[in-house]
Amino acid sequence: MSELLAVEAVTKRFGTLQALDGVDLVVPANTFHGLIGPNGSGKSTLLKAIAGAHLPTTGTVRFGGRDITNAAPYERARQGMSLKFQITAVLNELSVYDNVLMALQAGESVWSLIRSRARARLRDEVMHALERFRLASRADELAGLLSHGEQQWLEIAMALAPRPKLLLLDEPTAGMSPEERRVTGELLMPIKSECALVIVEHDLDFIRDICDALTVLDQGKVLDTGTVDEIQRSSKVQQVYTTRV
User: Fold this and answer.
1) Considering only CA atoms, which of 32, 30, 24, 28 is closest in space to residue 50?
2) pTM for this predicted structure
3) Please, what are the domains in the chain?
4) Most buried residue among 97, 105, 205, 238 by CB atoms closer than 10 A?
């Protein structure tokens, strides 16, 4: 499989705090990679360093073979990277349909938007995005009326609408019921044929069920990386992770 994302010796300091310390990560195209570890281990910081929300203090981030270490978030988005943070950012006063439409229109030219060509032309894409996340029947309702789990699905649909090569998810199942978490895994699996996924998640059962590989962080360093089975057998992970999550 071809390499899509490569994080090489990345560090991140906030004053005297060493949040990331020489982190390496490789994610091939069309694979799901999970980031796990105790609270404060650097998982979300690493995700933000990949997305451009935090620039690394040292080290390199490559995406699709290009050095994007210091690229702005919008430049990364143009190259095919999409991010969904833990807290939902849907627009509650807009319809479910219009939330996805706006995500698609973000890539449109100003001229197309002024002439209102995008709305009609993008209808099929909007409805496809909603159907795959079981929201088509709610298209005309206000997004604020959706349940917490449905709002999370809507935001994932929005993140996937521009057809990214890499989707970054930060604890997408936080606050969901067990049934919603199960369904979320089912809804995510089909996207593997379209894009890779890097996901931060505390629900170990959920992340083990969908990921091809896991990287375990501890105190800003990579504790271990491997397949799900390899991580489950790792003595280093058993010694540190199981006692500090």
Assistant:
1) 24
2) 0.89
3) 3-88+166-244 (3.40.50.300), 91-145 (no CATH)
4) 97
